[in-house]
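Exam review. A common question shows you a sequence with its structure tokens and asks you to describe the fold in words. Practice with the pair below. Do the first one on your own.
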Amino acid sequence: MTDIKRLAEMIKECDNIVFFGGAGVSTESGVKDYRSEDGLYSTVKEYGVPPEQILSRSFFRKSPEVFYDFFRKYFIKEVEPNAAHKALAKLEEKGKLRAIITQNIDNLHQRAGSRNVIELHGNVRQFYCDSCGEFEETQEVIKEITDGDVPICKKCGGVIRPRVVMYQERLHPDVPDKAIGYIAEAEMLIIGGTSLAVDPAASFTRYFQGKYLVILNKSETVRDGGADLVIRDNIGEVFEKVMAEIEG
């Protein structure tokens, strides 16, 4: 039995599946991975500091114009959901997938039709004032960023920020417990497009005690040794083939 057929059979067998995903889920849609070697090199060459520093809370407050210049290049881009996003939405519709837990902030799971999406690091399409907390109209803020401006709150004059978890910040209070709850109760956990190198998010996968653990990632992860199935291929291509098996 091929890995694709085996994964399809596992999915057919289970009705409580949780998907835990990272950047590799969206790179096939054209979302840039600033943590990759090319992204890291380009950032240091252009700005003189690594992306983690630019995306920190202290740097945002000190140099919002540099933050938003970087933000515009890596996060304000028109991209479409790929086969992986669409397959996961379809599995949720079929009653197989209970939740998507994502480290991504690109909103692509929701655009593909998924409803129960737990965003560990927030959403790049939501903005609020860093001073007064007032939420802002998304398209208006994105236009300002695209035009090269730093968006300013009309109510208090504070700098507007994206609703994402920056470096030096904790996850939003209710998010960890919610994510861990789904993972702990899952019959099957699929980890895709992440090397599990970023904590505390990656540590949540340790709460899984279900039947099948599947890893879909091009590089090794710390959970490979305990997985029931490991596939090293493009995640969109894998899901496209798996859905053909399930629906065929």
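Now try the second one, then compare your answer with the model answer below.
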Amino acid sequence: MQAIADKQGVKRYLVDVTVNGDDYSVVVKANTLLVNLLRDEIDLTGTKKGCELGDCGSCTVLLDGKPVDACLVLALEADGCDVITIEGVAQHGELDKLQRSFADNAAIQCGYCTPGMILSAKALLTRNPKPTEPEVRAAISGNLCRCTGYVNIVKAVMAAASGEVTA
């Protein structure tokens, strides 16, 4: 990682990261969080800021395939990594089966938790394509929803896993 001093002598660092398949080189301060890199520097605002303490999961992204709270990860830690945000889940203009299932199963109310919830569920289905309901509940346990009571969210993940999603 390359350090660069600005006019005031403050060190900044060049971070090379792949986000949703696109390569970015961004100069950041040492204390820049991944959530701020994504939202403020790369302009991907689907990653939400919530508690900023790692408790709510609204900022969940996939970092090298693993769900992380982007509010707890320094941008420097993502150097050389692959990041997937909610904007990268749909492919070629088509919603992912998980996104369609959330819509089909009314798993969205206010929608603030939805990006993080979908990414946590996506990581689960990647490593375990046929999870049980308790496994789904465990996978999304770090994502808080204040609106839905989780019933339809779990139903949506289970439907996506079973292939019961409309086109």
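Model answer, second protein: The CA atoms of residues 45 and 160 lie 25 Å apart. The chain has five helices and six strands. Full marks require stating both points clearly.
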